[in-house]
Specification:
The complex is a heterotrimer of chains A (about 90), B (about 120) and C (about 900). Chain A is an all-alpha fold and about 90 residues long. Chain A has helices spanning about 10-40, 50-75, 75-80. Chain A has a domain at about 30-80. Chain A has 3 helices and no strands. The longest helix of chain A is centred in the N-terminal third of the chain and has 30 residues, at about 10-40. The two termini of chain A are about 40 Å apart. The N and C termini of chain B lie close together (about 10 Å). Chain B has a 5-stranded parallel β-sheet, sandwiched between helices. Chain B is of the alpha/beta class. Chain B is built from 5 helices and 5 strands, in the order E-H-E-H-E-H-E-H-E-H. Chain C folds into 4 domains: about 5-405, Sodium/glucose cotransporter (Up-down Bundle); about 545-620, no CATH class; about 630-735, Helix Hairpins (Orthogonal Bundle), CATH 1.10.287.130; about 745-885, Heat Shock Protein 90 (2-Layer Sandwich). Classes of the chains: A mainly alpha (about 90), B alpha/beta (about 120), C mainly alpha (about 900).
């Protein structure tokens, strides 16, 4: 193999794609955890203003949406398999 | 009129019988008993009639007939085919090949005499 | 102001506009044009039917009562969309590849195409959705009433009930018109989807407009709004953890299981890639929809009088401020939300009802013999339409009977909890191959029962469905069976309680029963197909331009039924559709017709599978495969039988040919033989006749001549006789009719006899013998063997051309055979004749020896009969013949080896 001097990981694209798929899998879990965080704040006893929670929720929401958009773009490569030609 | 007959036949008894009959009738009978060089004998002797057997060692009588007919000098030679092969197709083949008369063995001696006379007379 | 009239007019115009959009989209779709129909934006927007009038009105009400808790209804779906890679992707892939038409279809199909399950799910779905439809009707009527209440003059308003009825009727008509135009093979309703996408834009716009108005118009900016919120009763973040988590999970479950969501998400999906866009676009949409809810709630609580229905803040706030235009816009937004939900829900439910309840019943009634596909389609369409009307009517009835007073939010959540019962069976089916039909049924039944008992019946109000006594003291007075405190879990929010118990018991029963029971074969296959769908299918092609598929169909059909017939069929269909050329649209009619044509050639199952491959882009279903396998097996069996017959016939023909050949050969041989015999017989006869005539006719023969000729006659007759004898002998030998007399004798005695009989003159012809080697006993037909020896010795005498002829007779033993060689010192037989000498009538050289040429042929036959052999031995001093005899075991005597 002549490309021994090249990058260690060949096939970067597929590797990246697979890692993106992993990220896509982890994202909802992260989201669930993030959305559940406010519950912990209520324990403190001191009443948290709804507004603060509102800020938190909506900004998390936005961040998650953006992350999803980014990851989905990366996953687009996988979806570019040629569709079934339907030929018998 | 010439009365020379060349008998091309390999069976000794038949040679003897035919020779006897014909020579008794005043014919000059010469014999040749194999097919290989029969045509040479015909050329050499220039008989007035050839009596030809079919089953000969060497060449078959039909081949010899064909040779005779192919030879420009001999093509008009009267040939009498005398054979023990009596099938219809043999007669047909002989006639196609240009034989003048065809007779099967055993023959009647009187018939042979008459045929020979008629063939040379014509 | 005749606001109400304006309202009605605007409503009417809006509805007309929706009709137009739906009609246009439908037509474009049918023509195969309209790629804009298949954009991911449309798909994402269509998902918005999750946000119904509940969202539009009820979210604010919910927020006004419980603060930020309302947002859980949207967090659930957000998480599901973000996690599309897990669940939605699989659901959509399975739905497309298996051509699923509804939730009930998916579940029943997964669990072995069980219709029982399908019916169960359908009933549950209808029960679960009916309150929600009622909710929509209620919202519309309430919003109308709000406007009417705002009228300065107390205009006579038709009763709430009649408004609701009119709305219901209108919705039914719209849905029937656009939901059942024709039976799309894939259950896609492009017109409806388009209309819904439009409504999504309208309601977002309306809500945002109201929100902007409230924040900047009423409150005076973001800062002030936040202050208002902080000052309002909902300022504190006091959400119970169980509710927060429970509601989020419930909304996530409902998002997956709701029939209307399934319809737009899976069934109407054109391209799996759209899911990718929707994964982030839809959460964004939800976020925008909920952005202003809290501000509106807080400001409404502040501005509006006490006791004002918070559900209607989005209407009442603008109305109070005199913003009639905004109010109307807001009304339209609410109207859009309500109507879109009802339409899609009606379509989804009617599909289930018609496919899984009405059609099976009808087919059962008619004995399943309705093979007239036209008939079936009409029945299906009619069933579909009646179902739509029925479902909308049911919603109306629920609304009518429920009195319409309960807070909107709670009804919605009860409905959510009902459809969430599908979740274990659904998800289990998609991810767990061992999930089976019995388990699904048991789980569903359990969940449904618990839901009914704990949530649904109590929701009707105290003492209406469930007696108060049961609520307080439990079923049969059993304390631990209290509907809202099962097994001692007291103090829980009833909704969360019910959800927790119903889902847990559902799942536990589902899993347990699935583990214990055995699946049916179709189930196992379906299980593998569903769970492993990513391994099987690629990105299944959507319903791309119809003409491209028609072309594929034409290519395939030409191969099956031949080009002229296929082209004629297609051309006729195209003409019927009003198109020129050879490519008709792949309409269901045409496809059915094509399938019929093709099944004439390749069988029904294969034809079906082939067409669905091309048109549906679907993988072949298990049943198709099984049916195809059946048919193929039959075809193979038939063709192998045909093959066997053909083979047999061929074999027979071959044998006949061979026999014919042999007969021809024999015939030729016979002719040759007869001809030969004829010659052989005629030759001596010629001599005999000729000389007889000479003797008879010639005068003056000498005595010597007479005796000579007489002798010749005599010899020839002898020769003739011998020939006839030989012929007969040979014939007898060849036919196997010879009788062999086995005797035992000494070899040397036999040789003595033979030599004597052959007439060999010992004085002129020397014979060399090996007495020692001849000391052998033989057990065979000695006479025949002697005949062979005589023949050989005679031949030597006749043909040996040496000056001093010597015949050497040399017996020897080899293995278990006795070899006797007869070798003379003549010139032998030339190589090219050696193979021929044993043939009949073959003679070499002159015929003076007087043999007929049958001698060696007879010897060969004799030796064959004696179990031995005779052959020419080349390379000796002269002609050499070897006679081989098998040695009998009991032959005594000394033997000399070679």
């Amino acid at each position: 193999m002549s490309s021994e001097r090249g990058p260690v990981f060949l096939e970067r694209r597929t590797y990246r794609r697979r890692r993106m798929a992993d990220a896509a899998r982890l994202l909802p879990i992260l989201g669930a955890a993030l959305f559940g965080l406010p519950l912990l704040w209520g324990i403190e006893g001191e009443a948290t203003p709804t507004t603060r929670v509102m800020f938190y929720i909506f900004s998390t929401w936005l961040v998650l949406t953006v992350l999803t958009a980014v990851i989905s773009r990366y996953l687009r490569q996988e979806k570019q398999d040629p569709p079934d030609t339907g030929e018998w | 009129m010439g009365r020379r007959v060349l008998l091309i036949e390999d069976e000794p008894n038949i040679i003897e019988a035919v020779s006897f009959i014909l020579s008794r009738d005043g014919w000059d009978v010469k014999t040749h008993s194999n097919g290989h060089d029969a045509i040479d004998a015909v050329r050499a002797r220039r008989p007035d009639l050839v009596i030809l057997d079919v089953m000969l060692p060497g060449k078959s009588g039909f081949d010899i007939l064909h040779e005779i007919r192919s030879d420009s000098e001999l093509s008009g030679m009267p040939v009498l085919m005398l054979t023990a092969r009596g099938q219809v197709k043999d007669r047909e083949l002989a006639e196609q090949s240009g034989v003048n008369r065809f007779m099967t063995k055993p023959f009647s001696n009187a018939d042979v005499l008459e045929v020979v006379r008629s063939m040379v007379a014509s | 102001m005749a606001t109400l009239n304006v309202l009605v007019l605007v409503c009417f115009l809006y509805v007309t506009f929706l009709f137009a959009i739906a009609f246009g989209a439908d037509r474009a779709a049918r023509r195969g044009r309209g790629t804009w129909l298949r954009s991911p934006v449309v798909y994402t927007l269509s998902l918005s039917i999750y946000c119904t009038a509940w969202t539009f009105y009820g979210a604010v009400g919910f927020a006004a009562r419980s603060g930020l808790e309302f947002v859980t209804i949207y967090l659930g779906p957000t998480l599901v969309m973000i996690g599309w890679w897990w669940t939605l992707r699989k659901m959509v892939r399975v739905g497309r590849s298996q051509r699923i038409t509804s939730v009930a279809d998916l579940i029943s199909s997964r669990y072995g195409k069980s219709n029982l399950l399908a019916v169960f799910v359908t009933v549950l779905a209808v029960i679960g959705t009916t309150p929600y439809i009622a909710l929509q009707l209620q919202s519309v009527t309430l919003s109308f009433a709000t406007f009417a209440a705002n009228e300065p003059t107390g205009t006579e308003l038709p009763s709430q009930q009649s408004i609701a009825l009119w709305v219901a009727l209108g919705l039914a008509v719209f849905t029937i018109l656009f939901g059942t135009r024709n039976l799309d093979a894939n259950e896609r309703h492009h017109g409806v989807v388009m209309a819904i996408a439009l409504e999504a834009v309208v309601k977002l716009f309306a809500l945002l407009a109201v929100g902007v108005f409230v924040v900047w118009g009423l409150a005076g900016g973001i800062g002030e709004t936040l202050a208002r919120i902080d000052a309002s009763p909902i300022a504190a973040w006091e959400v119970s953890g169980s509710r927060w988590v429970g509601l989020t999970m419930l909304s996530a479950a409902a998002f997956l299981c709701l029939p209307r969501m399934f319809q737009v998400m899976v069934v109407e999906n054109e391209d799996e890639g759209h899911l990718r866009t929707a994964s982030w676009a839809f959460p964004a949409y939800l976020m925008l929809m909920s952005l202003f809810v809290l501000p509106i709630a807080a400001v409404g609580l502040d501005v509006l009088p006490e006791g004002a229905n918070p559900d209607l803040f989005v209407l009442t706030l603008p109305l109070q401020e005199g913003r009639d235009g905004l109010a109307i816009l807001s009304f339209i937004g609410g109207f859009s939300s309500a109507t879109s939900m009802v339409i899609v829900a009606a379509i989804a439910l009617s599909t289930m009802v018609s496919n899984h309840v009405v059609m099976p019943v009808w087919l059962w009634i008619t004995g399943g013999s309705a093979v007239m596909s036209g008939d079936l389609r009409n029945v299906a369409l009619l069933a579909r339409r009646i179902s739509i009307a029925g479902i909308v009517l049911l919603g109306y009835l629920y609304f009518h009977m429920s009195g319409g007073g309960t807070a909107l939010a709670e009804i919605g959540l009860v409905s959510f909890a009902g459809v969430a019962q599908f979740l274990p069976a659904l998800m289990g089916g998609l991810f767990w191959r061992a999930a089976n039909h019995t388990g699904a049924l048991a789980g569903l039944a359990t969940g449904f029962a618990v839901w009914m008992y704990c949530l649904f019946l109590p929701s009707f109000g105290p003492s209406s469905a469930l007696p108060q006594a049961v609520l307080d003291h439990g079923l049969f007075g059993l304390h631990w069976l209290r509907p809202q405190a099962l097994f001692g879990t007291e103090g829980m929010d009833p909704l969360v309680h019910a959800v927790m118990w119903s889902m847990s018991l559902n799942t536990i029963v589902f899993v347990t029963v699935s583990i214990i029971s055995f699946p049916r074969p179709v189930e196992r296959l379906q299980g593998a197909q569903f769970v492993n769908v990513f391994e099987h299918s690629g990105n299944t092609a959507g319903w791309t331009g119809g003409l491209a598929q028609s072309e594929d169909l034409l290519i395939m059909s030409q191969r099956i039924i031949g080009a002229p017939q296929a082209q004629a069929l297609f051309a006729t269909a195209a003409t019927r559709q009003g198109l020129a050329g050879y490519l008709p649209e792949p309409s269901p009619d045409f496809l059915q017709e094509l399938e019929r044509e093709l099944s004439g050639s390749v069988g029904a199952a294969t034809a079906h599978a082939m067409i669905s491959q091309i048109v549906g882009g679907a993988t072949v279903s298990v049943e198709d495969l099984m049916a195809v396998a059946d048919e193929t097996a039959q075809i193979m069996e038939y063709s192998s039988r045909l093959e066997a017959k053909t083979e047999e016939q061929e074999r027979t023909a071959r044998q006949l040919r061979e026999a014919n050949q042999k007969l021809t050969q024999l015939s030729v041989q016979k002719d040759a033989f007869l001809s030969q015999i004829s010659h052989e017989l005629r030759t001596p006869m010629t001599s005999i006749r000729a000389f007889s005539e000479i003797l008879r006719d010639t005068r003056g023969l000498k005595a010597a001549e007479k005796s000579k000729y007489a002798a010749i006659i005599h010899d020839e007759t002898v020769r003739l006789t011998r020939l006839l004898d030989d012929l007969l002998d040979l014939s007898v030998l060849e036919n196997g009719q010879v009788v062999l007399n086995s005797q035992t004798g000494h070899l040397d005695a036999l040789l003595d006899r033979a030599i004597a009989a052959s007439g060999l003159d010992k004085r002129t012809f020397r014979i060399e013998r090996d007495r020692l080697a001849e000391d052998v006993m033989l057990t065979t037909d000695l006479d025949r063997l002697a005949q062979v020896f005589i023949n050989l010795i005679s031949n030597a005498r006749k043909y040996c051309d040496s000056a001093s002829p010597v015949l050497k007779i040399a017996p020897k033993r080899q293995n278990d055979r006795l070899l006797i060689d007869f070798i003379d010192n003549g010139s032998g037989i030339p190589t090219d004749h050696q193979s021929m000498i044993f043939e009949k009538f073959s003679r070499i050289g002159e015929t003076k020896a007087g043999g007929a040429g049958l001698g060696l042929a007879i010897c060969r036959e004799i030796m064959a009969r004696l179990g031995g052999d005779i052959s020419y031995l080349p390379g000796q001093s002269g002609a050499a013949f070897r006679v081989t005899l098998p040695q009998s075991p009991d032959t005594a005597g000394s033997t000399a080896s070679a």
